[in-house]
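>> received
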Amino acid sequence: MEVIIQEQETDSKGSFYFEKQGERLAEMTFSKAGPDKIIIDHTEVSDTLRGTGMGAKLVAYAVEYARKNKVKIIPLCPFAKATLKRHEEWSDVL
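>> returned
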C-alpha cells in the first residue's frame, strides 16, 4: 500500500494525515508555539491500520516537516514522544 501523507495548516494549528477513499484513517495534530516550534499534541491511527507502522510514518513526516521549515518539535503526545526518543537521528528537531 502506497502511503501519501498530507498536511493541513492554519495560522495556529495543523495536522499530518493519511486518507483512503476520503476517510481520514491516521492523523497527528499540532499547535504552533511561535514561529520556530510546533507542539505535537495527538496521534491517532484507525484500528484498520494497527500494526502497519502508520504512527511511526506520521512521526517521520513530522520530522521532515520540522527540518524543511526550520522548526523544533515539542512532543506532548506520548506516542510521538516515545517514537522520537527511539530515533537518535531525529534528535536535531527536538
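>> The CA atoms of residues 23 and 60 lie 21 Å apart.
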